[in-house]
Write a structure and sequence with these properties.
Length: about 400
C-alpha cells in the first residue's frame, strides 16, 4: 500500500487527467457536503423541538379539566369538570409505581406591593414536587418544603423578573411582600430555562392558598411525571389508563374528548423522534444518491484510464505482475480520489456548520451540529465508496491478457 512506485503512478494518472479527476472529485465532495448539511439541519430541528419542552421535565404529563360536551350518567352536557385534593390521592394510590412526582396546581392573580413598588402577578400554588416537574432553578434562598405545606405558611418563591420589579435595590429573600392585602414572606428567587414569562410568576404552598381563597380543596390542574424507565409506548398507555380511571371517577362519557385534556410529553417526543428519523433517512438517501453519481463518475474515469493504459498493463503482466497487483493499483487510486474529495467536502460542511450554529437560535431550529458518529460514518462511507468505484475497473484491468494488450494501439 505504501509502495513509492505505486503512488507515483497514481499521481501521474491524476495529473494526466486533471479536469476529469477534478469534476468527479467535486461531485463526491458535493455529495458529502450536502449530506452533512442535511444531517446538521435535521439535528438542529430536533434540538429546536426539544428546546420547546425544556421548560418542564421530559417525562411530564399535565391534566386539565374542562367542560363536558356530552350528557352522561344523569348529567347534562356543559358540566364543568373540576379536580380536588381527593383526586390527587386517588392517583397516588391507584397508580403507585407508575409515576415519580405529582403536584396539584391552584392559580390566583394577586396585587403585590413592597414599599413603593407594586404589580399584578400570577401565583401558582403547588407542592414541593413542582420544583422538579417545572425544572425551576433556585437562584437565592430555597423552594417550598413539606413544613410550609403542613403548617400552611404564608411564604412565596418569586421569579427573578418580579424580584427586579419589586426589589430593585434589595435582596428579596427574607422580606415580606403584600399579596392582596396579606403579608407573605419571600423565601426564594427562581429562574426558569423556558422563557422570561415563567419568571414573572410566584410559587406558594397550595395548602395556604386553598385555605386563604375559599377554604377549598379544589385543584385547577394536575402535573405528574411518569416512571422514567417507561418507554414512549408505556408512558402513553399510562396516561390512557389515568384518563379512563378519572373519567369513571368523575362520571364522564368515555368518548367525550372535551371534558379532560391530557398533555403527555411522551407523545410529543415520540412524534418528534419519528419525524426526525424520517428526515434523517431522507437526508441520507439524498446524500447517497449524490455520492453514487460521484462513484459512477470515478468508475468511468478509471475505465477510460485503463483503456488508455492497456498496453502498459500488458507489459506489467508480461513482466510478472500478478492480477492482484493491478487490482491494488486501481483500487488505491479510486480510494485516494474518493477519500480526499470527500474529506474536502466534509471539512467545508463542518466549517460552515460551526460558523452558522452559534447564530441560529429559533424556536423550531436551534444549534445545528455534526456529531462524531456522523464524521466517522462519512469516513467509512468514503472508503467503501472508493472501493466500489474502483472494483469493476480493477477487475477489468486484471483480466487483460498480455498478448492482446501488447497488440493494442
Amino acid at each position: 500500500m505504501f509502495d513509492r512506485d505505486t503512488w507515483q503512478e497514481i499521481f501521474h494518472s491524476i495529473r494526466k487527467n486533471k479536469l476529469r479527476t477534478f469534476l468527479t472529485g467535486f461531485s463526491v465532495a458535493w455529495g458529502i457536503f450536502i449530506l452533512v448539511l442535511l444531517l446538521a439541519s435535521v439535528n438542529g430541528m430536533g434540538n429546536g423541538f426539544e428546546k420547546q419542552f425544556n421548560d418542564d421535565a421530559q417525562n411530564s404529563i399535565f391534566i386539565y379539566p374542562n367542560v363536558t360536551t356530552k350528557p352522561y350518567g344523569g348529567f347534562e352536557a356543559g358540566r364543568r369538570i373540576s379536580f380536588d385534593n381527593q383526586d390527587i390521592e386517588y392517583i397516588r394510590k391507584t397508580f403507585e409505581g407508575s409515576f415519580e412526582l405529582i403536584t396539584p396546581r391552584f392559580y390566583r392573580s394577586v396585587n403585590a406591593s413592597y414599599g413603593n413598588q407594586t404589580g399584578n402577578y400570577r401565583v401558582t400554588a403547588v407542592n414541593p414536587d413542582h420544583l422538579v416537574i417545572e425544572r425551576t432553578v433556585i437562584d437565592k434562598g430555597r423552594y417550598l418544603n413539606q413544613n410550609d405545606m403542613k403548617n400552611s405558611l404564608k411564604v412565596v418563591v418569586i421569579g427573578k423578573v418580579i424580584a427586579k420589579e419589586l426589589f430593585p435595590k434589595e435582596d428579596p429573600v427574607g422580606k415580606n411582600v403584600i399579596l392582596n392585602g396579606l403579608s407573605h414572606k419571600v423565601i426564594g428567587v427562581f429562574s426558569d430555562e423556558g422563557n422570561e414569562r415563567e419568571e414573572n410568576k410566584m410559587y406558594a404552598p397550595i395548602t395556604t392558598f386553598q385555605r386563604l381563597y375559599g377554604n377549598t380543596d379544589r385543584v385547577d390542574e394536575i402535573a405528574i411525571t411518569y416512571n422514567s424507565a417507561f418507554s414512549y409506548v408505556e408512558a402513553i398507555n399510562f396516561s390512557d389508563m389515568m384518563d379512563v380511571a378519572l373519567r369513571r371517577r368523575l362520571i364522564i362519557d368515555p368518548d367525550d374528548q372535551g371534558a379532560i385534556y391530557f398533555n403527555n410529553y411522551a407523545e410529543a417526543y415520540s412524534n418528534v423522534s419519528g419525524f426526525t428519523t424520517l428526515l434523517n433517512v431522507i437526508s441520507i438517501g439524498i446524500g447517497i444518491l449524490i455520492l453514487i453519481a460521484g462513484i459512477v463518475g470515478i468508475g468511468n474515469i478509471l475505465v477510460f484510464i485503463i483503456k488508455e493504459r492497456t498496453k502498459e498493463i500488458g507489459v506489467r503482466k508480461a513482466m510478472g505482475a500478478k492480477p492482484m497487483d493491478i487490482i491494488k493499483l486501481v483500487l488505491l487510486e479510486s480510494v485516494f480520489i474518493t477519500t480526499i474529495s470527500g474529506f474536502v467536502g466534509l471539512l467545508f460542511a463542518m466549517g460552515l456548520v460551526a460558523i452558522i450554529s452559534p447564530l441560529v437560535d429559533a424556536p423550531a431550529f436551534s444549534n445545528p451540529s455534526v456529531d462524531n458518529v456522523t464524521v466517522i460514518t462519512c469516513t467509512i462511507v468514503l472508503v467503501v465508496a472508493g472501493l466500489i468505484a474502483g472494483l469493476i475497473p480493477a477487475t477489468k484491468a486484471a483480466r487483460v491478457k498480455p498478448i492482446e494488450a501488447l497488440r493494442a494501439d
